[in-house]
Amino acid sequence: MPNKHIAHKHVALVLGSGGARGLAHIGAIEALEERGYTITSIAGCSMGAIIAGMYAAGQLKEAKEWFLRVDKQLILRMMDINLLSNNSIVKGKRIIKELEKVVPDRPIESLNIPCVIVASDMQSTEEVIFRSGSLFEAVRASISIPLFFQPVQIGNRLLIDGGILNPLPLHVASRSEDDILVAMDISGKDGMPTESIPEPIDVDGKLAEIAAKGWPIPKSIEKQLRQLSKRIDDIRFKRAQDLGKNINFFGILDRMSDMQIQQNTILECRITPPDVHAVMRQYAYNTFDFDKAEEIIAEGKRIMTDSLILYERAHA
Fold first, then answer.
1. Most buried residue, 48, 84, 93, 110, by most Cβ within 10 Å?
2. What is the rounded average pLDDT of the residues 205-232?
3. In this structure, what is the dihedral angle of CA atoms 250, 253, 255, 261, given to the nearest 10 degrees?
């Protein structure tokens, strides 16, 4: 008897935070639809909130076309610098106005499918979950990267990026009994980018492999291999000693934030395990790589497709 989840292919989709990597959500949605899945609800925070809202409004195609036109000049034009503020660099109003040209604002409760957007309250240190009210007011709150975007005050709440407390808000997804929970996680754990360290050479192992095939090994070749191996070992030792020099003050702060996001994502997946967990490495793309939209969307599609194939095989 076929698994009921595969038979129905109904999906509660959750989209994570991660700046420009969030464009991968567009490709992930395309992969789901091409494989015959129906998205019955959607949730997201930060960049995931933008894509979730645009999809729930039925205008993902228009959103994709707009993002594919984004270049560094447009990004700069959307940055309404906040010269008089002591808590942010950018006001954030201009980018919302640009997004509203693509998808007009409307009440969240009137969208085509249930949509949940998550922000963080600086006052209460709690998640704020939007299921109704202005779509773009919720999105503006959810994308408020601390120190970059101005926080959003709604009533007695002071709201910032939803990814601060929960980069992958699985527990807020609206699900029915037939829904499978699918996560597009764009903050996957990986190592801090540093200067490339060459792999060591196992000279004796290589020589043994060659000898096993009956090939003669000239002494000059063996000597060159051992010299190359020593040079690589020297480089590895030097770079290992210099790791601390490869990161500055701001790099340390950025890495601390990355580690927090990765750990919070891992904890959320343990508390609310998704049926399908598609993961993009956190350092695959930078936060502001919006000019790489086509490449990021394609990568998101590939990652989700591979994850769905694994899930379908396991539940065949």
1. 48
2. 75
3. -140
- The residue assigned the tokens 């690589």 is 232
Rg (CA), the chain: 24
> For the residues of the chain, what is the DSSP string, one character each?
---HHHHH-EEEEEE---GGGGGHHHHHHHHHHHTT-EEEEEEEETHHHHHHHHHHTT-HHHHHHHHHH--HHHHHHT--B-TT-SSEEE--HHHHHHHHHHS---BGGGSSS-EEEEEEETTTTEEEEESSSBHHHHHHHHT--TEEEPPEEETTEEEE-GGGT-SS-GGG----TTEEEEEEEEEE--PPP-S--PPP--HHHHHHHHHHTT----HHHHHHHHHHHHHHHHHHHHHHHTGGGG--HHHHHHHHHHHHHHHHHHHHHHHS--SEEEEEETTSS-TT-GGGHHHHHHHHHHHHHHHHHHHHHHT-
Question: What does pTM read for this prediction?
Answer: 0.79
Amino acid identity, position 201: I
Residue with tokens 């909130």: 49
Average pLDDT over residues 97-119: 93
Contacting residues for 100 by C-beta, under 8 A, at least 6 apart: 136
- Per-residue pLDDT reduced to its tens digit, 25-66: 999 999 999 999 999 999 999 999 999 999 999 999 999 999
pLDDT of residue 251: 65
Residues involved in catalysis: 46, 161
